[in-house]
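stuck on this:

***
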Amino acid sequence: MTKRREPLTYHRTLTDIAHLIGWDRCAAICGVSERAVRYWSDPDCETEIRLIDAERLDRAYLEHGGDHAPFHRLHALRLDIAGRDGPDRDLARVAGKAAKETGEAVAALIGASGRRDPRAIRKAREEVHEAIESLTDGLATLDRAEQGEQS
């Protein structure tokens, strides 16, 4: 049975990278055994990936056709979530705002598609940014709710 790796974790991010480039390639890039890399991806093991190895794997992921640097994105998002101290703890209200903002972003993207109009492109960027912010607020609200349950 496959072990669950939660979203927005280093374990899951490493597993995603390994699916693209292979566990053996990850090990070679980091100069460790394949077993060591698999331990890094195991949430039940106390060993963790080093920052330099995460950077190396991000570069390899990009070189193998990935469209982003997975560890970099995860790290930035987790820091952003941790720094959010929004007063709204009502998940339903946060979800409603996220739905509104993402709907507006999709509409603006469609409106900008195939056009060279700088105003439409600027509007789409603005709407996408607002959608990302509202979804990130949703993640922060989920984290606060989860921490409240564990306290």
Q: What stands out?
A: The chain has a mean pLDDT of 92. The chain is about 70% helix and 0% strand. The longest helix spans residues 118-150. The chain has two domains: 10-76, 88-150.
